[in-house]
Amino acid sequence: MLASIDKLIKILTLEAQQFKYGDRAIIGGLEKYLPTWVQEGKNDKVPEDLLSKIESAMLGYSNAPVEDRYSKILNLAKVLKTAYPDDPKIARAETVFVNTKPEIKPVPDETVKKEDAPVKTVPVESVAASTPPYRQPGLGLNAPLNTIRGVGPEISKHFATVGVKTLGDLLYYFPRRYDDYSQLKPINRLEYGDELTIIATVQSTLLTNQQNKNMSRLEVVVSDGSGFLRLIFFRHGSEVPRYLENQFKRGTQLVISGKVDMYLGRLQMRDPDWEPLEKIHLSTNGIIPVYPLTAGLSQNTVRKDIHELINFYGNKISDFLPPEVKHSANLIDLSVALHQIHYPANQGLLTSARERLSFDEIFLMQLGVLQQKKNWQSGTAVSFSLPQEKLDALIDHLPFTLTNAQKKVLAEVRGDLQSNHPMNRLIQGDVGSGKTVIAALAACIIAESGAQSALMAPTSILAEQHYQTLTKFASSMPEDSPLHPDEIRLLTGDTPTKERNELFKKLEDGSVKLLVGTHALIESPVKFKNLQFVVIDEQHRFGITQRAALRQKGDTPHLLVMTATPIPRSLALTLYGDLDLSVMDEMPVGRIPVETHILHPLERERAYQIISSQVEQGHQAFIVYPLIEKGEDEEAKAAVEEHDYLQKEIFPNLKLGLLHGRMKPDEKENVMKKFHDKQFDILVSTTVVEVGVDVPNATVMLIEGANRFGLAQLHQLRGRVGRSEEKSYCLLIPENEDALQNERLEVMTQTNDGFLLAEKDLQQRGPGDFIGSRQSGFMELKMASFTDIRTIEKARSMAIDLYHKDPDLSQTENYFLNEKLAEFWQSTSSDIS
Ligand code: ADP
Ligand code: MG
Predict the structure, then answer these.
(1) How far apart are the C-alpha atoms of 444 and 393, rounded to whole Å?
(2) Quick check: CB of 434 below 6 Å from ligand 1?
(3) Which residue, judged by its Cα, is nearest atom 26 of ligand 1?
């Protein structure tokens, strides 16, 4: 049989068997591909009249309804049979067509009109009784992975390491990115740099050993009638390359996807993905998912298993979103979205799939957050208050006057403490806006009634700083102040056992009123007599379990969390909707703004001069190296190398400290402590220095590779300086000339306002970074970080609407939603602050 005819039959068989006449065997559609094939047919000497019969048989295929496509292919098979009456392959193909007659499908769900949506009058019980398909025995999404054909204990084990244990997990194991090979071209039209798909036949192979004995080069020449192309594979050893060579039998028809490059003036493809034409295409011929992998899991395994699963479940996944929500948010059906997120038919559908799945996450999270808030608000807590004169007396003894923002937030906090409901408040305030004093005053209000407070900070340096500040604060207060310096204590991992035991006693008898510390607060067997107020500083550094553990030390204590990461309001309401928000949007007067400059990479000398002269004046400096996507190891290496270089070549007479992510926590602490105690002049560091350490004597922050950072992060880093009356500098050096015209860096020189910068960051980089900051310890938002603020706001407002209509989700049309919500929050404890 002629190669071109054979190829046509394979494509048609694929179209029938795998795609059920969905016009998807060839990306772009069969009709569009036909001219390319006809050209091949001509080269192959297929009779002209047969070619034109084939062409007219396929005319209009792509726009025809499924049942017409079926007739067209059946008709084409007859044409071929007449031309080659004795060919067994054609006869076999015809049988396949006859046996794959498509069913006429009902109208798909998305087009269901609103009036057709389920009506409310159905009692809940009856819905519950009519088990939805995914809960049928053997069909459950909770079934283990080995339900899938070809998945054994070994593969299940590997999947488990990435958290995939059930079919449902796998369905939601989303691609990291996609390779778009949806363009199909004949070989003679290939251009250098194309990323695409060709369909071609193997002509010859050549396996050679490289000079380096352990490496072989396999060259495969393929042709599609329009031209020839070389595929090049390099492989280690000798077994693997020979095995590979055997897969390229002469005459085999392949679908090949990859990038066209050039070698010695000839086009070629290096290491393309390829699959036999007649097999279903999972790695070629379309938009191809690229999954995150782990040792033992190959890309092909994940693709195959997910494909198998999607095929098996197909339309069986029922949609938990109430139709009304789905329609007014203009979302595609869940099963379509899950299909398209793994195997997108085109970019448009991929976008719709992402939109749908991000919407789901935000929507469910928002509903949960609203219910959570209601739970808390209905709970009871002890009420605390301090007469105005007494509070005023305390405030009068502060070494400064409160800003208006501080007064406003203090009033909000007092209101919460006074009410009979537990406080759940988040204070967002830029670095240096003065959040600590609010916590201190609140602790005084609690101490007035003899109750206890705890403040937890992410590192022991921070805890120690807080301890110093708070005892100083307490000792400057009048005699009758409710909180004395000796009623404040510090607990970190370093607290000696003897001191610990004495401290524990005083906590149990209630004579310690405010305990400041690290996670040691929750890890050690601390028992409070009467813990009523819990403050968590730099909340994004703690997981929910840690927060919950601290709260559990008391009986529904009031909770105050503080963050210096400004989050745009629209997002904060979504991500922290369970908490009441207080914003400290004002800096104490007299702060000298940090002077920010962008320096040319060649002006580095100038930066070093500024550092030298600041150190001469007795100040200190930070030099921060960028995050490198390759990972922590590389980052650490860069910092180590730079530290050596700077110490030897640039600042031989100064003392340089080094801090990076590969160091153990106590090593890090130790370095920070030394820097704080002025044992180092300069601290060379990766981004680990970001979190709220106060070294007021540091006046220069030099950031290398500044273009790699997000605005919020740059702002955090800049916040490490400018913490005293001295003028401070932030110097931004982009990694190359091209990055110099960086809009983000420009903005940094224009404002010191963290909220403004956060808003800009949101516009420029999307919400991903902010979502990340909530994510730690929270349920996973897999899709939402890729989405846009528009989807987030839509999901939020629709969740609020629905919540107002049906707060308990007890109405029939919300039955599945309620079920899904429970499942979504299952892994999360009841404390989500
Ligand atoms: P942050 O909000 O970053 O935690 P802090 O509470 O550590 O800020 O305050 C930063 C510094 O500003 C501290 O030294 C604090 O004493 C000081 N401070 C706080 N409030 C005021 C104010 N209203 N006026 C002047 N200085 C203030
Ligand atoms: Mg602080």
Answers:
(1) 12
(2) yes
(3) 588
Q: Is the CB of 588 under 6 A from ligand 1?
A: yes
Q: Which residue has the higher pLDDT, 786 or 343?
A: 343
Tokens of 287: 């938009």
Residue 533, beta-bridge partner list: 453, 558
Nearest to 20 by CA among 311, 306, 282: 311
From CA 742, how far away is CA 468, in angstroms rounded? 41
User: What does DSSP assign to residue 558?
Assistant: E
Q: Is 437 in the pocket of ligand 1 (CB under 6 A)?
A: yes
Q: What's the rounded Cα separation, in Å, for the pair 46 and 42?
A: 6
**Buried residues in 173-204 as b, exposed as e (16+ CB within 10 A):** bbbeebbbbbebbbbeebeeebebbbbbbbee
The separation between CA 44 and the C-alpha centre of its own chain, rounded to angstroms, equals 51
541 lines ligand 1 (CB under 6 A): no
Q: Binning pLDDT at 50, 70 and 90, where does residue 119 land?
A: very low
* Top mutation candidate among 427, 436, 469, 563 for ligand 1, by most atoms within 8 Å of CB: 436
Helix-then-strand count for the chain, H and E? 30, 21
Query: Which residues, at least 6 apart from 717, have a Cβ–Cβ distance to it below 8 Å?
Result: 622, 624, 687, 689, 690, 701, 703, 709, 730
- Which whole number is the average pLDDT over 220-228? 92
pTM: predicted TM-score of the whole model, two decimal places: 0.71
The C-alpha atoms of residue 229 and residue 190 are separated, in whole angstroms, by 10
* CA-CA-CA-CA dihedral for 132, 135, 139, 140, to nearest 10: 140
Does the C-beta of 398 come closer than 6 Å to ligand 1? Answer: no
Contact 504, 527 (CB under 8 A): yes
Integer Rg of the chain from CA: 33
Nearest ligand (C-alpha, residue 461): 2
pLDDT of residue 688: 67
Query: In Å, how far are 105, 206, 216, 217 from 211, measured between CA atoms?
Result: 60, 16, 9, 10
Minimal-distance CA residue to ligand 1 atom 22:
588
Residue 724 Cβ contacting ligand 1 at under 6 Å: no
CA of 470 to the centre of ligand 1 (A): 12
- CB of 319 closer than 8 Å to CB of 335: yes
Query: Residue 584 Cα, ligand 2 centroid: separation in angstroms?
Result: 12
Beta strands in 575-669 (DSSP E): 580-584, 595-598, 620-624, 656-659
CA atoms within a 13 Å half-sphere pointing along the CA-CB vector of 334? 18
Summarised one tens digit per residue, pLDDT across range 789-805 is: 788 888 888 999 999 99
